[in-house]
Amino acid sequence: MSRPSSAGAVGGGLGAGKAGGGKHGGSGGTAAAAAAAGVSSGSSSGSGFGSGSAAPASAVSLPPAGLPGQPPELTALFECPVCFDYVLPPILQCQAGHLVCNQCRQKLSCCPTCRGPLSPSIRNLAMEKVASTLPFPCKYSSSGCLLSLHHSEKPDHEEVCEFRPYTCPCPGASCKWHGSLEAVMPHLMHAHKSITTLQGEDIVFLATDINLPGAVDWVMMQSCFSHHFMLVLEKQEKYEGHQQFFAVVLLIGTRKQAENFAYRLELNGNRRRLTWEATPRSIHDGVAAAIMNSDCLVFDTSVAHLFADNGNLGINVTISMC
């Protein structure tokens, strides 16, 4: 049976594959396979995965400049001086009247234009009324999206925009790839060939050699309901002598698509059972965010040893539709 890679530090190579399978190179070391045996529950699986949805009825396909007769200078007035995205309602200004978007405002201590104070918060109702009359280009217009939308519809569209770039979802790897949602699975199949894909909504994820020192990742794919899910088990040393395991399921899809599914992780053995149920995270969020928010199955080495068999840990994974 193959063993996963051990990098000796957070961000080590990932191991995924069939028992006795091929090697997979990761950052900090050679990654071998973390194997799994699958048990199908009868549902047919597909190779397709969601990439977005149709644009809202009120969206219009236009060049980023805006509607005919609408000067581009008008939407330019709403440009955030920090991130260059648009300042949309609710619109707040500094005491001198300068605007900054709400996302950037939370990270700033003073106005980026005049260096004046941002508090107390002052609402600019006039600019909000003007914003309600304008269509704004999608934030991915530079990637090819030609839609312009009302500000209230812009966030929902950008969540599923087919031009939205995604990064490689593999944890701990040094892969710098980014591209469209449709290109994620082809990338994984080409650049990370040692990652095993199992079919069906009920499978067993077998992480081998869990006693390896340092930070280790075990990764595999699960295909069901015409979507692909990434299963990740990550071991980290939070402080010297205390290691923790984090297990999570990610959807190769958008956050909105992830809301249609639920997953269950179960450790079972020696007359004990430990279960975690949750909504899968989108790969847009990534494993790090799930671990940071403890939105995953978390257990330490003592618990892992209660369920392990000769250093190998089997996790039952079930995907269901909501």
Automatic annotation (TrEMBL):
It catalyses: S-ubiquitinyl-[E2 ubiquitin-conjugating enzyme]-L-cysteine + [acceptor protein]-L-lysine = [E2 ubiquitin-conjugating enzyme]-L-cysteine + N(6)-ubiquitinyl-[acceptor protein]-L-lysine. Its main location: cytoplasm. GO terms for cellular component: cytoplasm; nucleus. InterPro entries: 7-in-absentia-prot_TRAF-dom, SINA-like_animal, Sina-like_RING, TRAF-like, Znf_RING, Znf_RING/FYVE/PHD, Znf_SIAH. It is found in: Cytoplasm; Nucleus. Residues 1-30 are annotated as: Disordered. Transmembrane segments: none annotated. Residues 133-193 form the SIAH-type domain. GO terms for biological process: cell differentiation; proteasome-mediated ubiquitin-dependent protein catabolic process; protein ubiquitination; rhythmic process. Pathway: Protein modification; protein ubiquitination. Pfam families: Sina_RING, Sina_TRAF, Sina_ZnF. Keywords: Biological rhythms, Cytoplasm, Developmental protein, Metal-binding, Nucleus, Transferase, Ubl conjugation pathway, Zinc, Zinc-finger. It comes from the Eukaryota. One of its GO terms (molecular function) is zinc ion binding. Signal peptide: none annotated. CDD domains: RING-HC_SIAH2, Sina. Residues 80-115 form the RING-type domain. Its EC number is 2.3.2.27. Residues 9-29 have a biased composition (Gly residues). Belongs to the SINA (Seven in absentia) family. The RING-type zinc finger domain is essential for ubiquitin ligase activity. E3 ubiquitin-protein ligase that mediates ubiquitination and subsequent proteasomal degradation of target proteins. E3 ubiquitin ligases accept ubiquitin from an E2 ubiquitin-conjugating enzyme in the form of a thioester and then directly transfers the ubiquitin to targeted substrates. This is E3 ubiquitin-protein ligase.
